[in-house]
Write a structure and sequence with these properties.
ABC transporter involved in vitamin B12 uptake, BtuC; 65% helix; two-stranded antiparallel sheet; 4 strands
């Protein structure tokens, strides 16, 4: 039966029977894979104890990777010096992670800029910086074996983490002492947090920053130190992983972030931010991931089953907060009640460059406008999605996952309406109607998927962070699993997506208006209209006032007859519909309509723009416009001739492409430094509503 359900349609190599078992070799591999997860999990957990959300672990992990490998591969080694170079590389990785972690710490402590937005920016700056550095160091690339996108293993220079006999115990050459080091670090962090004055100050700052300040604690110093330590832990995780000597680093990381960094979030949440619990949750997650990897060798099974299992487990783990809540009410446990009040931080839910070949443009001002709109429109509508949820009091960090799910369902509609699938074949002249139908279905899919968040957060009072993180993990797992089952590939290609473009021959291509009315998508007009209408509803109607009151003071709203639970359901559902719509628009305009289980971090970026815009429509428009413009410049700078005089100014500067790719994120941080003073999130966001509490 299982073989029928999970059959991928590929040739069967193992007869559909799993026979490998979980042997000593795989157990050793599990411990190896768990090592960096322990470190990134500790990084997230430590920051969370201080009331901070370290979504910047991927960037800190990348900086630790870069510095570690520069030292390990750049310093000549002898048998006598190998250990000391290894130790130096480990320390260098920790230092690089700490330096990268201090950036959001300083922005948070001294400029009061939400750490979510700065972490997202530093993540992508790090991705492009690492690619830039290693692109210019060909001597470190594994050219000898033809792996041009990979660096040499550290054993190339005779550097590797001491095995400490674990490779013999588990019969796996990748087993080394890194796992034992990670355990020791976890124990040390546990002692520091729970048994020292410094740890008490960190926890006090996280519980109530103002109270900690009035008690004489240095809350700004604690915030900065928390991020420094968190960054050092992420960097150490990267160092232990790549100093193993059995792993290669893919240096071209500018379009992707390491999963080890993001996986630290569910690991910390699953462990309830307990450092000792992080060890066990990391091993557990590593075990499931290994199972998924090994399923690839058995063609009868879909490897994404493991990802689905992890997401479901994390989702239901959030219900533990419900049990604490109920026990707290029954026993009047003040400590448990305090746990529900900590969640006041704005937490995140966190591309491919546009294809310039499908629409050839020789009038560059119009081209610039068209490209800006491609990036701006989906960011704008998804950022508004976040506003609707958070104004109602629900932190929707699942925007990324909802976008992924909505984009897949929309693409699926187009796929089944095309000659490729042959189910409901619709002629190409009706492509625009197919597009409109796909947009509607994507919005409905996003709304339905968001019910998983609203049900857990509103009805069950579950931890909203865990629920949102689970949806971010669940969505790509569902999508990739479904694509594998439907087309037996890694991505779902949808035909005639180019037919969704509207051409207007009546407009002079030399005119600026050509950028708005020629070679554009109908989704642009619809999305802008939806944005304006919903913004007016949110801020100019009684419904909007009631919704916003639930995010500011739900008890007061309840006292005048407003159903807080209902309004939060509505706010989250609207948020899901907009995110699903934005996800499908994004893949149509930038990825030729292909669904592949990712939207390249645009959900996290939309969340950052929401914070950047201070949860208001006008600020969101300006933030989306700024980022869309910068993103366009970074992806199309070689073709920009604004004055149409044959002078390609940016091309002639001959600056590295990675610098242009980093530009949107760097300038966003600069702008934030001067505009963040008035930023204020809804007061009651993230706090489960208790009707009996006043």
């Amino acid at each position: 039966m299982l073989a029928g359900i999970f059959n991928t349609g590929r040739d069967l190599d193992a007869g559909g029977v799993l026979t490998f078992g979980f042997n000593s070799r795989l157990f050793g591999d599990m411990l190896f894979r768990a090592t960096p997860l322990i470190m990134t999990g500790l990084s997230v957990a430590l920051a969370y104890k201080t009331g901070l959300f370290n979504i910047g672990a991927p960037g800190q992990y990348l900086m630790g990777t870069m510095t570690t490998l520069l030292v390990a591969l750049g310093i000549p080694s002898t048998p006598e010096t190998a250990f000391w170079i290894w130790l130096l590389a480990l320390i260098a990785g920790m230092a690089a992670g700490a330096v990268w972690g201090v950036i959001p710490g300083l922005f948070k402590a001294f400029l009061n800029i939400n750490e979510v937005i700065t972490c997202i920016m530093t993540n992508w700056i790090a991705a492009n910086l690492v690619s830039w550095v290693f692109d210019g160091l060909p001597n470190m690339k594994n050219i000898e074996e033809g792996k041009l996108s990979f660096l040499h293993k550290t054993t190339f220079n005779g550097i590797s983490t001491p095995k400490l006999g674990l490779d013999l115990i588990f019969d796996n050459p990748r087993s080394d002492g890194g796992f034992l080091i990670a355990i020791v670090v976890a124990i040390v962090i546990f002692i520091v947090i729970n048994k020292t004055t410094f740890g008490y100050e960190l926890r006090a700052t996280g519980l109530n920053k103002d109270a900690a300040k009035y008690a004489g604690m240095h809350e700004k110093r604690n915030i900065v130190l928390s991020f420094i330590i968190a960054g050092a832990l992420s960097g150490m995780g990267a160092a232990l992983y790549y100093l193993n000597g059995g792993t290669e680093f893919a240096w071209e990381t500018s379009t992707a972030l390491p999963s080890e960094g993001f996986n630290g979030i569910p690991i910390a949440l699953l462990a309830c931010n307990n450092p000792i619990g992080v060890i066990f949750s990391s091993v557990f997650l590593a075990a499931i991931n290994i199972s998924g990897v090994n399923l690839r060798a058995f063609a009868n099974y879909n490897e994404y089953i493991a990802d689905l299992i992890v997401a479901v487990i994390i989702y239901f783990s959030g219900f533990a907060n419900l049990l604490r809540f109920l026990l707290g009410r029954k026993k009047k446990n003040e400590k448990t009640t305090a746990l529900t009040e900590i969640k006041k931080q704005n937490l995140p839910a966190g591309g491919n460059p546009s294809d310039k070949n499908d629409i050839k443009e020789e009038y560059y001002m119009a081209f610039l406008i068209q490209q800006v709109l491609k990036f701006m429109v989906p960011l704008m509508i998804v950022a508004l999605a976040g506003v609707f949820a958070e104004r109602s009091g629900i932190i929707n960090i699942a925007l990324e996952g909802i976008m992924i799910f909505g984009s897949f369902v929309g693409a699926l509609v187009v796929y089944f309406a095309s000659p490729t699938a042959g189910v409901y074949v619709i002629p190409e002249e009706y492509a625009q109607w197919v597009f409109l139908l796909a947009m509607l279905v994507a919005a409905l899919a996003g709304a339905a998927f968001s019910l998983l968040l609203s049900f857990s957060a509103v009805r069950l009072k579950a931890d909203q962070t865990i629920g949102g993180t689970a949806l971010n993990l669940m969505a790509p797992a569902i999508v990739l699993f479904s694509i594998e089952q439907i087309v037996h590939q890694k991505r779902l290609e949808t035909p005639y997506s180019g037919s969704f473009v509207i051409f207007n021959e009546n407009i002079d291509p030399n005119s600026v208006f050509a950028g708005f009315f020629d070679k554009v998508y109908i989704s642009t007009y619809i999305t802008i209209l939806v944005f304006v209408v919903l913004s007016l509803i949110l801020y100019k109607t009684k419904f909007g006032l009631r919704l916003r009151s639930c995010g500011e003071h739900p008890q007061a709203a309840d006292s005048v007859g407003i159903n807080v639970y209902k309004m939060r359901y509505i706010g989250t559902t609207i948020s899901g519909a907009l995110a699903g719509l934005g996800g499908y628009i994004y893949i149509v305009t930038t990825a030729a309509g292909s669904a592949e289980g990712t939207v390249h971090g645009m959900g996290f970026m939309a969340l950052a723009i929401m914070i950047f815009g201070n949860w208001r429509p006008l600020g969101i428009v300006l933030g989306s416009l700024l980022f869309g413009l910068l993103k366009t410049v970074s992806s199309s700078y070689m073709d920009l001739d604004i004055n149409e005089n044959g002078v390609y100014f940016l091309r002639e500067l001959a600056l590295p492409s990675y610098l242009y790719r980093m530009l949107p994120y760097i300038l966003t941080l600069v702008v934030l430094a001067f505009t963040s003073k008035k930023s204020r999130c809804p007061k009651a966001e993230g706090i489960p509503y208790d009707k009996g509490r006043r």
